[in-house]
UniProtKB/TrEMBL annotation:
InterPro entries: CofD (IPR002882), CofD-like_dom_sf (IPR038136), Gluconeogen_factor (IPR010119). It is found in: Cytoplasm. NCBIfam families: CofD_related. This is Putative gluconeogenesis factor. The keyword Acetylation does not apply. GO terms for cellular component: cytoplasm. The gene is yvcK. HAMAP family: Gluconeogen_factor. One of its GO terms (biological process) is regulation of cell shape. It comes from Heliobacterium mobile (Heliobacillus mobilis). SUPFAM superfamilies: CofD-like.
Length: 457
């Protein structure tokens, strides 16, 4: 099929082959070979008016011409093929190959959570490894996700969609399309296009698990995304006053403090792929995200806590920058970790990554009006819980106080590589690749300008 008409490949293949033939002829001349004897005899008769052309010079000129033709023909053939495979040509083919091959050698990282915080972190981590597995909460009962749960009996697709978009190769395009929310239309108003696609894929493929796999292939994501369970669960909470509430929306709007959360039904089971990913992981990341409605619900699924405790991977909790009304009012960093240990057993978290950068006053006033304050980092109590404290400047200083994906990914990967080296003693190549990936040449263009001034910090 390579010789079919219209491929625009044959001409360059022929030029490359002819150049290789000339280079071979020049080598034969240089070593006085017999295969090109006739050509050699003819060239020896060529002479200037007085002196004959040295045979060595003739061989060198033919070799250089043949080599140039071979390289030019080969490069033109590759360019012709790459223009069809990547018509936008937004980056050089060699950069794409290097990026993908190097990402395949990255550490195996499992991230557990949900909400906006998880998708923000994934945008940064996907630039360092493609061995990513996201275990995402599916207990959301509000907005488009809640309506689709009621209508189709599927798990909440919203957080799954956010993670798929964050890990997509063409993230900016997918973000614009899949996160589009309909503003009008009977039955459509308020729905998210990505949620509808997942619901439709689940109906056509026969299960939500197959729908996620299908969307992952379509978006060519770097890594894997799995729901924490396929059971249609409801998140419930016991409050400090002894009352019980059902549903995420009711939990976050309750006036009393949260004592504990639990799932209904309690016997929901995880996917086999998630347990395998936890077992094989080099690092497991919890958060960032809403503590009681995004992070802990994943840990309540049967066998996930046991798998986490058995895993030899480094367990890292990414602490939120701000407290969250209705969930973590007045919580310090150690209280976040204590809540995780209360639900999943002590000693789970090995390290905690906390922000040390001050929140701009303008943003701070906006958040204080909503009852949110910066999370206090009480290092003494964190260390008593057996947590290694990793301090870093993590916020993006834009309209919202959120983690910066590049800074957060750098902090996580630095810790992961150090722990991997400490455990195995292998790491020189990993360090070289890590430093190379910190350069702006291998960051996505949408992030490179913003991250350029930060890479040396």
């Amino acid at each position: 099929m390579w010789f079919y008409p219209g491929l625009k490949v044959k001409r360059w293949m022929a030029l490359s082959f002819f150049g290789l033939l000339l280079a071979g002829a020049s080598i034969s001349l240089a070593f006085d070979g017999e295969f090109f004897g006739y050509l050699e005899t003819s060239l020896r008769k060529i002479s200037l008016p007085r002196e004959p052309i040295p045979l060595g010079l003739i061989s060198l000129l033919i070799f250089m011409a043949g080599l140039f033709m071979h390289i030019y023909g080969f490069m033109a053939m590759v360019r012709s093929i790459s223009q069809v495979l990547r018509p936008e040509m937004d980056s050089k083919l060699v950069e794409v190959l290097y990026r993908r091959r190097s990402l395949e050698r990255g550490p195996k990282v499992v991230v557990i959570g949900g909400g906006t915080g998880l998708s923000v972190m994934l945008r940064g981590l996907k630039e360092y490894t493609s061995n990513l597995t996201s275990i995402v909460t599916v207990s959301d009962d509000g907005g488009s996700s809640g309506r689709l749960r009621d209508d189709f009996g599927i798990v909440a697709p919203g957080d799954i969609r956010n993670c798929l978009v964050a890990l997509a190769d063409t993230e900016s395009d997918m973000d614009q399309v899949l996160n589009y929310r309909f503003q009008q239309g009977e039955g459509l108003k308020g729905h998210n296009l990505g949620n509808l696609l997942l619901a439709g894929a689940a109906e056509s493929a026969g299960s939500f698990e197959k729908a996620v796999s299908l969307m992952s292939r379509i978006l060519a994501i770097r890594g894997r995304v799995w729901p924490s369970t396929l059971s249609n669960i409801t998140l419930c909470a016991e409050l400090a006053d002894g009352s019980h509430v059902r549903g995420e929306t009711a939990i976050t709007s309750a006036e009393a403090a949260i004592k504990r959360v639990y799932l209904d039904p309690v016997d929901c089971v995880p996917l086999a792929q998630t347990l395998q990913a936890i077992e094989e992981a080099d690092a497991i990341i919890l958060g960032p995200g809403s503590l009681y409605t995004s992070v802990i619900p994943n840990l309540l699924v049967q066998d996930i806590c046991q798998a986490l405790h058995k895993s030899q991977a480094t367990k890292i909790y990414v602490c939120n920058v701000m407290t969250q009304p209705g969930e973590t009012d007045g919580y310090t960093a150690s209280r976040h970790v204590a809540a995780i240990h209360r639900h999943c057993g002590p000693g789970l978290v090995d390290a905690i990554i906390v922000n040390t950068e001050a929140v701009p006053k303008v943003l701070l006033h906006k958040y204080e009006e909503k009852g949110q304050k910066p999370v206090v980092i009480d290092v003494k109590y964190l260390e008593k819980q057996g947590c290694k404290v990793i301090r870093a400047r993590l916020i993006n200083k834009q309209n919202l106080v959120r983690h910066d994906p590049i800074r957060l990914a750098q902090a996580i990967m630095s810790l992961v590589i150090r722990e991997k080296e400490r455990q195995s003693g292998v790491g020189f190549i990993d360090r070289m690749l890590f430093r190379r990936k910190l350069s702006r040449d291998f960051l996505p263009r949408s992030l490179s300008n913003r991250a350029e001034s930060r890479l040396g910090e």
